[in-house]
Design a protein that fits this description.
The protein has 171 residues and is an alpha+beta fold. It has helices at residues 22-64, 67-85, 91-111; strands at residues 114-117, 129-135, 144-149, 151-154, 157-160, 162-167. The protein has a domain at 113-171: Nucleotide Exchange Factor Grpe, Chain A, domain 2. The chain has a 3-stranded antiparallel beta sheet with strand order 1-4-5.
Length: 171
């Protein structure tokens, strides 16, 4: 057999990297775009789920925020009802029961940081006190002389200002 003297092309031995066709590039770009779209949709759904769960948590917190306080107040109500059910007509025993119930209520207030505002002798503070009148007094002007109704604060936030009478300025 005779050998073929025609030189073989080197293409078959080491094929140069061919440039991908436009169709292949388009397909790759479409796959990449689909991956990004899927990831975006997943992130969007996850964000909506987080928002929904947070809204549910806030709703539950609002509904049940006073649950612990309410449970403590039930004991006070029970004491009041027990006092009302007593058949004795002794004023001293009735007063004693009321004092115990008041102590119980004060204890609940203390547990939950509800603080009484009783500002007799203090300078009028419009953030904590509501002046409803002025009276003659030996006290300096705008000093609280009389408290008509105590005020209360919850964690340093005023629930109800104290209704007070203040000293008039001396002429």
């Amino acid at each position: 057999m005779e050998q073929n003297d025609t030189p073989q092309t080197e293409q078959s031995a080491a094929a140069p990297e061919a440039m991908p066709s436009m169709e292949e590039m388009l397909k790759a770009a479409e796959l990449k775009a689909q991956e990004h779209y899927d990831a975006w949709m997943y992130a969007k759904a996850e964000g909506e789920n987080i928002r929904r769960r947070a809204a549910e948590d806030v709703s539950k917190a609002q509904k049940f925020a006073v649950e612990r306080f309410s449970n403590e107040m039930l004991a006070v109500k029970d004491s009041l009802e027990a006092g009302m059910a007593v058949q004795t007509e002794n004023i001293e025993s009735f007063k004693s029961g009321m004092e115990l119930t008041l102590k119980q209520l004060s204890s609940v207030f203390e547990k939950f940081n509800i603080v009484e505002i009783n500002p007799v002798g203090e300078k009028l503070d419009p953030h904590k006190h509501q002046a409803i009148g002025m009276i003659d007094s030996d006290q300096p002007a705008n000093t609280v002389v009389n408290v008509m109704q105590k005020g209360y604060s919850l964690n340093d936030r005023i629930l109800r200002p104290a209704l007070v009478m203040v000293a008039k300025a001396k002429e």
